[in-house]
Amino acid sequence: MIKIFKFAIIVICLGTFNSCLDYEELRENPNNPNQVPPSLIFTDLTPGPVESFEGAYERMQYHVNIGTDNINEPSFISGFGGSFNYGTLRNVAKMIEEAEKVGAPEYAILGKFFRARTYIEMTRRMGDIPLSEAEQGADIPQPRYDSQKSIYIQALNWLDEANSELGDFIAANPTRLLEGDLYYNGNLKQWQKLINSYTLRILVSLSKKENDTDVNVKGRFQAIVSNGTKYPLMTSIADNAEFTFSNEDGFRQDYNPNCAVCREAEIYASTYIDLLKAKQDPRLMQVADPTRDAVEANPGDLAAVKADFDSYAGADISAEGIVNSAKKLDGDFSLPNFDRYWNFVGQPAVLISYWEQELNIAEAAHRGWIPNSPATHYNNGITASMEWYGVDSADIADYLSTNQPYIVGDAGLKRLLEQKYIAFAENSGQESFFMTRRTGVPTYVFSSFNDIDPGESYPIRWTYPGSEDVNNNENYRAALVSQFGAEVDDRDQIIWLLKD
């Protein structure tokens, strides 16, 4: 997905550069322009989504890659090395600087969103990180670490400021379009909705801190959902921030017929498939094909086979690789739905969605943070997810009234979180992982075959960059002691965000 998104960035940047740059300004040195349009930097800063069947979703146990001659199991301890995205932050600062030069405050405003998101994405992975002394370059080459709590408060304040300032700008400039926009064709109101939906995402991720008055999770959440004029939110899946693929060079999804071995290599995991089957969820038929065993058992009635929930099966992602490989060859597992996925377009890659927003509001209401009806938003979220997959409206209504209606109590919260897991399948990047890390829903399966030995736990945090122990040793080690009581940096330590 990264290479596809970057290709799209190049295409838009070329057009934007030609249309926005005053060539008279290049005459001093045409090979080194004195300024860069902020729209170019904005396009480069725009976060790209993670497309379906990428490795990140294997960690969340939606699918498992079992190549033709592959007997290896997925490792669940790899990929947890953190990094400081100072390059991104420098680009944010540069975009704000260029925006001020050319009188384009909309980019400076959106810079607050990008800055907040960048710090949040770092801290939610690693814990305490530098903020107040970061971005100072040679002036402060060894920045001290700020507490994760203070980082979240600052980031939430930036997000609130971005919403307010963008709302005022839109009111004063109702026809202004945002150049370099990969998601919304320049519609600033859509970006304001995205900022607020993203803020709700972050507030829900702070559920273990709901009673911390400094963070004020409940008050912030209530302020957003109770004032649609000041805080506009998404109203349908048309508001999703998503990237749609096309059958053109540079814009095709990776899982496509040009990668012939991919068709048989991507297998659904039982963690995901068994949940759909248990709930008699019609999304199952939209995302998966019946097993070859099921089709061969009733070759004369394919429609009946597809309609039977027992025709579908996922691989146990914790099993020995050679066992899963043999079962795959025997036709025991379901592949991704041929009609939906095995082409050059597949499904859009989603950054953030309307269904996530609605299920987040449902969770907040269920927890008693807001007076809104949890059932209404629960139904909205599931309906939106099912519509995105193309489920028939009658099946949606039956599912919500009979199979999986909203219920109260602990069982209701678990059901709601399971619905989030289903809705996050193969979309929205790491959000499914962060939800499961926070709530324990669903229960991941793993074994020593996944490099997690008995008595060990699934990783829950990213380690700090190894260079910190060399380049910022004193502050790095102080941060470890402050958070974990010892100078130990590993994947199992509990960061402030996850402490009850």
The fraction of residues in strands falls at: under 5%
Number of distinct beta strands: 4
Mean pLDDT: 93
Rg over C-alpha atoms, rounded to the nearest angstrom: 24 Å
Strand order of the largest sheet: 1-3
Helix content: 40-55%
Largest sheet: 2 strands, antiparallel
Question: What overall form do the CA principal axes indicate?
Answer: globular
Unreliably modeled segments: 10-29
The number of distinct helices, counting runs of at least 4 residues, comes to 22
What pattern of helices and strands is seen along the backbone? HHHEHHHHHEHEHHHHHHEHHHHHHH
Organism: Flavivirga spongiicola
Keywords: Lipoprotein
Protein name: SusD/RagB family nutrient-binding outer membrane lipoprotein
InterPro entries: SusD-like_2, TPR-like_helical_dom_sf
Could you describe the 3D structure shown?
The chain is mainly α. It contains 22 helices and four strands. It has helices at 2-20, 38-45, 55-59, 86-102, 105-126, 148-172, 188-205, 217-225, 262-265, 270-278, 283-287, 292-297, 302-307, 321-329, 338-341, 354-366, 374-389, 393-403, 409-423, 431-439, 468-471, 473-484, and strands at residues 63-65, 241-243, 266-268, 349-352. Helix 1 packs antiparallel against helix 2, helix 6 (148-172) packs antiparallel against helix 7 and helix 16 packs antiparallel against helix 17 (374-389). It is globular and about 70 Å long.
